[in-house]
From TrEMBL, chains A, B:
Annotated GO CC locations: cytosol
NCBIfam families, alphabetized: hisD
Full protein name: Histidinol dehydrogenase
Organismal lineage: Bacteria, Bacillati, Bacillota, Bacilli, Bacillales
Gene, per the UniProt record: hisD
Sequence positions that bind substrate: S229, Q251, H254, H320, D353, E407, H412
Function: Catalyzes the sequential NAD-dependent oxidations of L-histidinol to L-histidinaldehyde and then to L-histidine.
Amino acid sequence: MKIQQLTPELSLKRQLETGNEQQLATVRTIIADVQKNGDAAVAAYTEKFDGVALSDFKVSAQEMAQAFAEVDVQIIADLTEAAQNIRLYHEEQQRQGFQLPLADGSFLAQRILPLQAVGLYVPGGSAAYPSSVLMNVIPAQVAGVERIVIATPCDATGKLPAAVLAAAQILGITEIYKMGGAQAIAAMAYGTQTIAAVDKITGPGNIYVALAKREVFGVVAIDMIAGPSEIAMIADDTAFADEVAADLLSQAEHDAMACAVLITTSETLAKNVQIEIEKQLVTLPRQAIARRSIEDFGVIYIAQSIADAVDAINQLAPEHLEIVTENAQVVSEQIKNAGAIFIGRYSSEPIGDYFAGTNHVLPTNSTARFASSLNVDDFLKKTSIIYYTEKTWQDHAPKIARLARLEGLEGHARAVESRAWRKETI
Amino acid sequence: MKIQQLTPELSLKRQLETGNEQQLATVRTIIADVQKNGDAAVAAYTEKFDGVALSDFKVSAQEMAQAFAEVDVQIIADLTEAAQNIRLYHEEQQRQGFQLPLADGSFLAQRILPLQAVGLYVPGGSAAYPSSVLMNVIPAQVAGVERIVIATPCDATGKLPAAVLAAAQILGITEIYKMGGAQAIAAMAYGTQTIAAVDKITGPGNIYVALAKREVFGVVAIDMIAGPSEIAMIADDTAFADEVAADLLSQAEHDAMACAVLITTSETLAKNVQIEIEKQLVTLPRQAIARRSIEDFGVIYIAQSIADAVDAINQLAPEHLEIVTENAQVVSEQIKNAGAIFIGRYSSEPIGDYFAGTNHVLPTNSTARFASSLNVDDFLKKTSIIYYTEKTWQDHAPKIARLARLEGLEGHARAVESRAWRKETI
């Protein structure tokens, strides 16, 4: 991991995979096919890509029970406790609308309602991601979404990972479909004979899933298209090099495109972290991935001061930020741009990935300047309400008509004035 | 305007203009050019498209003062009062983060901060849109955004509409650039030598502006890409046909692609509205546009009951909904999907466009199922904060490590366990 002096111009931006023309054409073909042929198209793509002919996409109650029984009781307990923590944090985000009384009995209001149906995509492949189930489902449940659907690809025998189904069972989710890729996104966006369409689709996926989400954006809402994971750390000479290195590697192991950056005021720490990274890499099961990430995107920056480090972080706007310094909490208060901040030595980043209660779906690639983690608001919508009485209308109609005419919209002015067209109403 | 029976399958969806390949190629060329050549590129495109060679894009204090003096004092008063109303409604949307204490001194928190810089695009052309200035700027100001920039194309003499500058002056906005089209969007997204980049771009525009906003999405945040205006009305035999017709036409005059729909339980009202539409169209200055909208997309539906009308509206999810029935407020409580609801005879839709205080930037094309009007949240971002003490870490580290290993992420498990690697810390 290279060491260099902190410079004023920093960026975490990487060239993100946006898919090539052929991938996009494939995705468009699949979406059009599912839109036209529904279940039959989903079945055909599932056979083609997942290698299994399914008579029914929906996971049965029996499969759910069986999966739950298969998972170690300790893991069930861990997932249950994590779910409770996540629910607690997200319940703090609950919101209510308001009513604003105006003169003469008129009022304005904002009504906040949950979306009616959302779909969560859970990636399949070599690993199982029960934490994705918790992080996407719980904010929707707290928002009050009535119908929550999960889509996830099965293996060639038609099975889904037991841990994913167990996580769903813990949350009380029963509408789970064995389908993946662009066909799953299309089925949830447009609906099929057996799968009713949803209003929003969230969750991570491969390039085909990401492209499909972009394509259906507007027909349904989508969450962000997340890029590779990022961790930035601010540390001084109170930090321990082995712990810093372990935390940097925890994000580097996600993806060869992941980005791990340390900004430190201590040259000694910098050198020791460099040594520790090499030492720890050797025994890491995902060494190849982590090594590419560290070599291509990992940097240890030496800063003149913590203030300089803070400035750099505000410019980087990293997904995850750990602060391991004296008075870490005071330092954290100066951070304006970061997805999630982990304060102090014991707040290792994976605590947020799995357990603490905050959401692990976070803005990447410097978008923390303007974007937030997945949260309850993502599953709510607001309706404006206007009630004018005759008196209020009468007091303001001339002003509204003038403003409409100023913009050349005579029809708007006449609409407001129309209430006076009939004698009895003046 | 045609009359037909209400059917269970309704949709407001129209084929929206998404731009052709040539328009997209033009937009991409302009964006790349502005990214590379900054001010020089913006100047060149302004000369090409707006027909004026500008030495300085920025509106001067003198121009601002002059514009303000040019606008009728009554209009200044109307805009000022509208701005106060809009501010009042949006101030009700202000939010605060929270801190959630955990055991042993640990805590989670959510910090809510304003975006730092936003850019508002105000369309130019034949008309001036001071109301767009109010509706986009005020939510950002209420959120606490420090830097608010306006971009708007000038005419061939380098002038901007006085009413637009006056509206900006009323709000205290001073950073206004004479630039339009894709070059304005690119300049705000990437920055130039004289224009610093922003974090989010909002505001309506033509197809080039819309395509450019889509292209820079991810580099900056954008608001929705709004489609043509929509109005739906539910009315019974207590409604007056001339008022209903006037309100339908107020949205139809916006755009030939606009959509005006009436759902009524009264056949008499349906027939009278049909007659009134024809009568009022004849004298409407924007008759040609309104007529095309009414002919292509306008429908009067006869419903068996108000309940059926409500079901239809929830399926349509219109941008604007007026309810002119007995007990209109009770009916409004059953509406789940609408951008804004106008209750009762005196709440004519243009009241919301200009004056009442709610936002006129609203979700179109059935996206009210999942989207909201522009609001204060659009200019805020949330950061998650995690602070674990040694004790809390110790209590939960084994669970977190188990969940990480369940997902095949050994590096995550080791990071959490690393705090125990050194004897003295156990």
